[in-house]
Amino acid sequence: MKSLITALFLFFLINETAFAQSDERIIFQNVRIFDSKSGKLTAPQSVIIEGEKIKSISISTADTDGAKLIDGTGKTLIPGLIDVHVHMTFGALTMKEMMSPMMSEGVILDKIGGNAERMLMRGFTSVRDAGGPIFPLKTGIDNGKLSGPRIWPSGATISQTAGHGDFRTPDEKSRRFFGEPSRAERFNATFIADGRAEVLTAVRENLRFGASQIKLMAGGGTSSAYDPVDVTQYTFDEMRAAVEAAEDWGTYVMVHAYTPRAIRRAIDAGVKCIEHGQLLDEKTLRYAAKKKVWLSTQMLVENTPNMDAQRIEKRKPVLEGQSKVWPMAKKLKLKLAWGTDFLFEPELNDRQNEFILKLQPWFSNAEILKMVTHDNAELLQLSGLRSPYQGKLGVVEEGAFADLILVDGDPLTDLSLIGNPTEKFLVIIKDGKIYKNMLD
């Protein structure tokens, strides 16, 4: 069987299907716009799209000749949704499928390609991939040979030996001592890198292939077999090496970590974004706020039917902590971002929008919608010139990318509309192209 990467490249080379309806000029008429900066709705206006950008927004428009007209009466135009912690490959496959020697190209192509298209149809026009073999998928989407969201790729995760990204099976020996890369490393899923020199090389390898930011494992995890959640991973010097290499390319490091000890070390090393952090205490949250570090976290579910007993047990303290971290972080005015982090549980993907609603105990509807559009877009911009898409996202403004959703109703009054994209997302546009239109 060809490798995962080879299979993906082959698919994107031979698949010439056009998924989007391309209109040279699109006009939304009489539509209320969600201002994702203020969290308010505008009065009814007209929004004109030409090419990939929003050309103008005005009370009315006289020139409609040759344009695709969409009536927005009683509806709301919002920016495309953004999920800043996805795993486009590993979120589409179970662990059993990933580890099976019998995995076929057909399974890979159907699950990963199909997952990307369905994600766009749920209104997610942009995502940040938090680690895994991603570059062929991103290339296929950007070339128009597959439909899916814009992807900010991290490339392979970077992990110490016995770290959260060390997914070796018991019979796979250390590359350093035995010279053979593990299966996960061959699939470009992870780099197992120890010491400053290896960390520098791993970071630079990802940047060479187009990573927009770097994902480093700074603490234990729940989906890995050999590292308890409480452990701290990577020395300060190793973490600082990753930050220096990323900063030399004008971008940043995000770290997987839960505990105050691991996160404090990461912040001191210059890391700009913490992923997870559900075990954080108020003292460390205050320190993160002082240093203007982002907290990108989630609302995880207890378990799924296919989750193994060890993972369920390891997740217990994380689940207990998440309901404490969100309100504390809001009170302390941290830079907050939201993501899902579905990993080896593809059955959760169809519930992606529902997980936005899990923020309602602590945030207003406007605050939530602002977070999953404007605020998440701000986090994406930390990539600077390494961002694969140079332009404004997360806003409905003149000159911004035309990544838009027409919602049937007012999500500020009823946020459940966001949780029902199949029925309530009437039009979905990415890059000025219509991917869904229920009004035709």
UniProtKB/TrEMBL annotation:
Signal peptide: 1-20
Ranges of residues in domain Amidohydrolase-related: 76-427
GO molecular-function term, one example from the UniProt record: hydrolase activity, acting on carbon-nitrogen (but not peptide) bonds
Composition bias type Basic and acidic residues, residue spans: 165-175
PANTHER family listed in its UniProt record: ALPHA-D-RIBOSE 1-METHYLPHOSPHONATE 5-TRIPHOSPHATE DIPHOSPHATASE
Listed transmembrane segments: none
Keyword terms, alphabetized: Hydrolase, Signal
Lineage: Bacteria, Pseudomonadati, Bacteroidota, Cytophagia, Cytophagales
Chain spans, region Disordered: 155-175
Keyword match Protein biosynthesis: no
Domain of life: Bacteria
Protein's name according to its UniProt entry: Imidazolonepropionase-like amidohydrolase
Gene3D superfamilies: Metal-dependent hydrolases (3.20.20.140), Urease, subunit C, domain 1 (2.30.40.10)
Record keyword Hydrolase present: yes
